[in-house]
Each structure stands twice: as C-alpha cells, then as structure tokens.
Amino acid sequence: MPDLTTPSHSLSSLLIGLPVLAVHGPTSVAVHGLTLDSRQAAPGTVFFALRGATVDGHQFVGKAVELGASAVVVEELPAELNPATTYVQVADSAETMARVAAAFYGHPSRQLKLVGVTGTNGKTTCATVLHKLFRELGYHVGLLSTVQNQIDEEVIPATHTTPDAIRLNALLSRMLQAGCTHVFMEVSSHAVVQHRVTGLHFTGGVFTNITHDHLDYHGTFDNYLKAKKGFFDALPKSAFALTNADDKRGPVMLQNVAGRRETYSLRGPATFRARLIENAVHGLHLELDGREAQFRLIGVFNAYNLLAVYGAAVLLGEDPTEVLTVLSGLTSAPGRFEPVVSARTRVTGIVDYAHTPDALENVLQTIADIRQPSQQIITVVGCGGNRDGAKRPIMANLACQGSSRVVLTSDNPRFEDPNDILTQMQAGVKPQDLGKVLTIADRREAIKTACALAGPGDIVLVAGKGHESYQEIKGVKTDFDDKRVLLEMFELLGK
Ligand SMILES: CC(=O)N[C@H]1[C@@H](OP(=O)(O)OP(=O)(O)OC[C@H]2O[C@@H](n3ccc(=O)[nH]c3=O)[C@H](O)[C@@H]2O)O[C@H](CO)[C@@H](O)[C@@H]1O[C@H](C)C(=O)N[C@@H](C)C(=O)N[C@H](CCC(=O)O)C(=O)O
Ligand SMILES: Nc1ncnc2c1ncn2[C@@H]1O[C@H](COP(=O)(O)OP(=O)(O)OP(=O)(O)O)[C@@H](O)[C@H]1O
Ligand SMILES: N[C@H](CCC[C@H](N)C(=O)O)C(=O)O
Ligand SMILES: [Mg+2]
C-alpha cells in the first residue's frame, strides 16, 4: 500500500486567508499532521476541538496538549494556556479544520475533476457506476463511497459515506499521486453540516432525490433539505450542477447555484432526457438522449441513476455515444438489487440496501413490475438503531403493502433494544395486514423463515443492509452478510 503523504508546513502558512479571532503562541511551528481526536495528538500535530453530537472536543484540549500537540484550534480558549503550545481561536473549528486540511494536502481537489453526488437515495449507485464508467473509458479514477473507497481497482475500506475533512483530503491527495484524473464521491447531508467537504473544489455536483431520512440528526425536513442544498450553493462558478427535475425539490436545489444549471428528467423537458421502454427482470430498455439502449440495471429508480451518470459524464466532456455504449454493459454497486437464485426450487433472493421508506417503496414497486403473477414476494426488513425512528412504522407498512408475507427483524440495532425498534415498526402494520407479518428479532432466523415460506419461484427480498458485511449490536460488529446467509439457507432448506 502506498504511503499517505506526510507533508510539512508552518502553522502560519496553513492559516493564510482564514478568519482567525486570536492566536496565543508562535505560528512558525512546523506541522506534520492534523487530528480531530485528542488521542491521536503528538508533537508536530494540530488538534482541532470540534463540538460533536455526543461530546464537546474542547473537553480534550488538555489531553491533546499533554500528548504534545504543537497547536490546538479552538472556538473557546481554555482558562489556562500551556506556553509550549500555540492556541488558535476561531469562530468555527470544523470549517477551519476543513480549510486547513485542504491546504495541508496541497488542495488536491483543484487538480482533479471532482464530482460530488448528494441526495437521499442513489448516491452510492451513481458514484460507483461513474467510477466503473470512467475506468472503462480509460481514466485513472478515484471513488469515495459508502461501500468502499477505491483508487482504480485498489480498495481502501470506508468507515463513512463521506470521510472527515482530514481523511478526505489525504485520500484525494493519494488519488492524485496515483495518477487519478477524476474522483467521484458521495456527499452525505452529515458531511455538509459537519464541513467535511468545505474547501474542496468541485467540478460538478449531482442531486438524485430527497425523501425522508436522518430526521433524527437534522431535526426537520427543511434542515435536511438545507444541508443538501448547502453543497449545491457552495459549488464554484466553473462547476456544473445537475439536478433531478422530476424530484419535487430538484428545482429548489438550483436556486442559488453559481455554476451551470443542468437537469435530467424522465417526464418532461430537461438537458438530459430518457423514456422508459421496458423495465424487465434482465434490465432496463431506455431511450436516453434520443438513442435507444439496453442496460443491466433494474428498476425505474435506476433509470434515474443512469440518466444522472450519463448527464455527468457528458458534462465532463465525454462523447455521448461512447458513454452510452459503455454504460449499457455496466452492473450496479454491490448490495443494490443484487439477485441470488436457489439451485433447486428457483427461489430468487434479492439483497438490497433499501433503508429508507422511499427506497423500500421503489424496490418493492420494481419487484412488482418485473415479477410473474404466480411469484409471491416475501420481505425481510428491519430498521437501524440510533437512527431516525420516524421511518420505522412507515417502512413496516410499506413492506406489508408490497409483499405477500413480511418478516420484521433487526437491522443494526446499535445501542438500542432490538425489541423496542420492532415494536415501533409493528405500530405501522394495519390491522388487516397483521396476519401476513411475523416478527423475528434474530436476522439469521428471520431470513431462514422467509426462505422456508418461499415456494418454488417465489421472491425473497432482504432489505436494509445491502453490501454490509457485519451486524452492529451494542458497539460490537459481528460478521453478517445477507447474501451469504440467503445462500446458506437455500442450501440448508434444500431450496
Ligand atoms: C452523528 C455523526 O455524524 N457523528 C460523527 C461525529 O461524531 P460525534 O459528533 O459523535 O463526535 P463526538 O464523539 O461527540 O466527539 C466530538 C469530538 O471530540 C473528539 N474526541 C472524542 C473523544 C476523545 O477522547 N477525544 C476527542 O478528541 C472526537 O474525535 C470528535 O472530533 O464526528 C466523528 C468524526 O468525524 C464521526 O466519526 C461521527 O460519525 C459517526 C461514527 C456516525 O455514525 N456518523 C454517521 C451518522 C454518518 O456520518 N453518516 C453519514 C452518511 C449517512 C448516509 O449515507 O445516509 C456519512 O457520511 O457516513
Ligand atoms: N435514484 C433512486 N431513487 C430512489 N431509490 C433509490 C435510487 N437509487 C437507489 N435507490 C434505492 O436506495 C437504496 C440505496 O441506494 P444507494 O446505496 O445508491 O443510495 P445512497 O444514497 O448511497 O444511500 P446512503 O445514504 O445509505 O449512502 C438502493 O438499494 C435502492 O433500494
Ligand atoms: N448511511 C446510513 C446507512 C444505514 C444502513 C442501515 N443498515 C442502518 O444500519 O441503519 C446510516 O448510517 O444511517
Ligand atoms: Mg451511499
């Protein structure tokens, strides 16, 4: 694995142009590293005290100083200052950290064609397909996504959809050094609010859609929309802003955009248009930008993703015909509508990352569109702990509306009691649907039961965890892979 760059700068050079309220101590100190975690502080590092969701990083300034941090960046100065450390006081530590991180790594985003994808659903799909497309077109390409980060085919594990600003700039720098010309990344709403992408130079931004999610974190839908829009508002004049004109909030996203405003649509006038010819089990047949093509991705929602990818590629200067030709052969991201068929009774298992009401509704609608009338749909679904609770009853109800049988189960309970989550899900089940619902907290058992219920040719949808290779219970991640469990159960039950 190539080394991460370890640049060295003086503190003063990193602070050029930034609004600093006060400095105590010398700014000539050499900086070899940046950290947001006091436990990683050491001589030569700058520690940024961030106000977190759980704790206030200012509590750990003393610890960082004790470990030898050369400088600390704070919003509030501690009562006692250590003469061996430089204290930089700013109005917003998170924003300052992002700008310092960009400078520390030499502003890699300015030398890359960096495209960010935001929206409730479809970010990973679009970013991953863009990565595959540009690889096929012959470029060296970086990817920052929920599933994994990549430099060409080299995989770098991801812990977040969008990494923190330090890791993000370090990764961009590494991508640049590896010869990447393009980087496609997901921009989560958390990332925008927490300034993870502040100070990056984007060549383009793509908006997929916005529906219910993360209201636990953002409080209101309006704040959630503001976060997504914040990314578009900050795009430079030189960038393109590509939005989904068919999404209710698509046009709002463009309101304050300084750059080129572009749209895509399946329903009306737009820069990039598509018409659905066929949505079948083997893929989509579309007329895209005036030309007919067959695609391997399934479901109308993927027609939107394909259109967004096509639009972004053309806006990046690629030849439309070549883009269509390559795009038609590409598959989706792992764990996104991924089918596995049992050997004997031809039960189709579908593993999908639908963990929002909109995604679940779309996936069930897609299955309804492509299934044979004789095929029953059995859905296994849960909702994550320590995340938006409001979606729980809604998702249980949607599962009932779109399925013959439903097994409610656990997703990643995290620090919540799985049975509490399940009770909240059950509250969404209509009295007339109670007969089709089973509740089994153990996800493995739930998948086993769904497989046992499946007759020859039926469809078992396992929703919510997609590519995830673990289940997180009380802070401990244990190996768990929906696709593997499905295959195991098919085998065990002779399906
Ligand atoms: C809610 C949320 O976004 N949390 C992120 C946030 O953590 P936090 O606010 O809880 O941090 P905290 O524990 O309160 O600590 C505050 C500060 O004190 C520091 N600290 C803490 C302890 C200590 O001893 N010393 C110390 O310096 C911490 O490093 C931190 O800088 O800042 C951390 C550092 O960047 C992130 O790792 C953490 O992501 C957590 C793990 C997380 O689960 N985030 C999810 C919700 C998230 O970000 N998801 C989005 C995608 C969603 C989607 O795809 O739909 C993502 O982009 O991944
Ligand atoms: N354009 C779309 N519109 C609606 N639903 C979609 C769309 N694309 C994908 N989905 C559904 O949403 C799920 C998640 O898709 P994907 O991983 O691409 O989204 P994401 O925005 O990256 O999600 P996350 O916020 O968790 O990173 C898919 O498994 C599918 O069920
Ligand atoms: N990026 C999303 C993923 C949710 C996936 C689902 N399996 C869950 O654990 O809730 C989040 O962190 O909220
Ligand atoms: Mg994602």
Automatic annotation (TrEMBL):
Intracellular or extracellular location(s): Cytoplasm
Protein species of origin: Hymenobacter lutimineralis
Gene Ontology MF term list: ATP binding; magnesium ion binding; UDP-N-acetylmuramoylalanyl-D-glutamate-2,6-diaminopimelate ligase activity
Swiss-Prot/TrEMBL catalytic activity: UDP-N-acetyl-alpha-D-muramoyl-L-alanyl-D-glutamate + meso-2,6-diaminopimelate + ATP = UDP-N-acetyl-alpha-D-muramoyl-L-alanyl-gamma-D-glutamyl-meso-2,6-diaminopimelate + ADP + phosphate + H(+)
Location of the Mur ligase central domain: 117-313
Binding of UDP-N-acetyl-alpha-D-muramoyl-L-alanyl-D-glutamate, residues: 36, 38, 161-162, 188, 194, 196
Motif stretch (Meso-diaminopimelate recognition motif): 411-414
Residues modified to N6-carboxylysine: 228
Gene Ontology biological process terms in this record: cell division; cell wall organization; peptidoglycan biosynthetic process; regulation of cell shape
Sites where the protein binds ATP: 119-125
Name of this protein: UDP-N-acetylmuramoyl-L-alanyl-D-glutamate--2,6-diaminopimelate ligase
Gene Ontology cellular component annotations, sorted alphabetically: cytoplasm
Functional description taken from the UniProt entry: Catalyzes the addition of meso-diaminopimelic acid to the nucleotide precursor UDP-N-acetylmuramoyl-L-alanyl-D-glutamate (UMAG) in the biosynthesis of bacterial cell-wall peptidoglycan.
SUPFAM superfamilies linked to this entry: MurD-like peptide ligases, catalytic domain (SSF53623), MurD-like peptide ligases, peptide-binding domain (SSF53244), MurE/MurF N-terminal domain (SSF63418)
Pathway(s) the chain acts in: Cell wall biogenesis; peptidoglycan biosynthesis
EC number: 6.3.2.13
Entries under HAMAP family matching the protein: MurE
First-level EC class: ligase
UniProt modification remark: Carboxylation is probably crucial for Mg(2+) binding and, consequently, for the gamma-phosphate positioning of ATP.
Gene3D superfamilies xref list: Mur ligase, C-terminal domain (3.90.190.20), Mur-like, catalytic domain (3.40.1190.10), MurE/MurF, N-terminal domain (3.40.1390.10)
Domain Mur ligase C-terminal: 335-466
InterPro entries the UniProt entry points to: Mur-like_cat_sf, Mur_ligase_C, Mur_ligase_C_dom_sf, Mur_ligase_cen, Mur_ligase_N, MurE/MurF_N, UDP-N-AcMur-Glu-dNH2Pim_ligase
